[in-house]
């Protein structure tokens, strides 16, 4: 393990992608799901939105944790033209979102809240993602594969959605759901590891 963190780590997220990222980093952790309300004021920017929701999730699970626990909470959104694209309501909504992203660059924001040893740190990371121009057949096939469901922006880069992406600028793991290296380095600095 490259980074050692002595605290018990609690991931305040039900996201399989975030779990996978921490597992790949070799970090032992437990999961506690917050189940918080995820509505925010409509005038919030993408950065404000993800930071607010990450903080809300972290504080919601804090009473369920011990004093020695370090909490990692996160929330991600896709944004294009300054507008947040949420999780699709249905397959038609997913197709409309993918048409909008086709051939264009969008931003993936992830907010992270770290709570450990009486300290709190909230930050966000942004990754630029450019899609290839997508044909209607590609969009139909991708949505039919089911990977759009429950995904901000209607795609997942860690699965077959990788074929939609022409280029990225920034942290790849941020697109998956957590800027892992930055998160763990900040947590290690917070806890004196």
Task: Give an overview of the whole structure.
The chain is an alpha/beta fold and 193 residues long. Helices cover 32% and strands 27% of the residues. It is built from six helices and seven strands. Strands 1, 2, 3, 4, 5, 6 and 7 form a seven-stranded mixed beta sheet that branches. Helix 1 links the parallel strand 1 and strand 2. Helix 3 crosses helix 4. The two termini are 13 Å apart. The mean pLDDT is 93. It is an enzyme of class 3 (hydrolase). It catalyses: a 2'-deoxyribonucleoside 5'-triphosphate + H2O = a 2'-deoxyribonucleoside 5'-phosphate + diphosphate + H(+); a ribonucleoside 5'-triphosphate + H2O = a ribonucleoside 5'-phosphate + diphosphate + H(+). Its main location: cytoplasm.
Residues in helix, %: 25-40%
CA-to-CA gap between the ends? 13 Å
What letter string, H or E per element, gives the SSE order? EHEHEEHEEHEHH
- Percent of sequence in beta strands: 25-35%
Uncertain spans, ≥5 residues at pLDDT below 50?
none
Find the structural class using helix and strand composition.
Answer: alpha/beta
Q: In this structure, how is the largest beta sheet organized?
A: 7 strands, mixed
Radius of gyration: 17 Å
Number of helices: 6
Number of strands: 7
Keywords: Cytoplasm, Hydrolase, Nucleotide metabolism
EC number: 3.6.1.9
Family: Belongs to the Maf family.
Pfam family, one: Maf
């Amino acid at each position: 393990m490259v980074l050692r963190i002595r605290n018990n780590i609690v991931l305040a997220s039900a996201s399989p992608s975030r779990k996978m990222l921490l597992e790949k980093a070799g970090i032992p952790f437990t999961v506690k799901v917050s189940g918080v309300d995820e509505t925010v004021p409509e005038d919030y920017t993408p950065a404000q939105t993800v930071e607010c929701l990450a903080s809300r999730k972290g504080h919601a699970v804090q009473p369920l944790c011990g004093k020695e626990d370090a909490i990692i909470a996160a929330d991600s959104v896709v944004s294009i033209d300054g507008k947040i694209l949420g999780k699709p309501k249905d397959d038609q909504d997913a197709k409309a979102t993918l048409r909008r992203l086709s051939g264009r660059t969008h931003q993936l924001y992830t907010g992270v809240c770290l709570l450990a040893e009486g300290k709190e740190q909230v930050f966000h990371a942004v990754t630029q993602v450019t899609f290839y121009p997508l044909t209607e057949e590609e969009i139909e096939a991708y949505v039919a594969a089911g990977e759009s469901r429950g995904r901000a922006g209607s795609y997942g880069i860690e699965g077959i959605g990788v074929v939609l992406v022409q280029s990225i600028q920034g942290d790849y793991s941020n697109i998956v759901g957590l800027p892992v290296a930055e998160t763990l380095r900040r947590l290690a600095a917070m806890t004196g590891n």
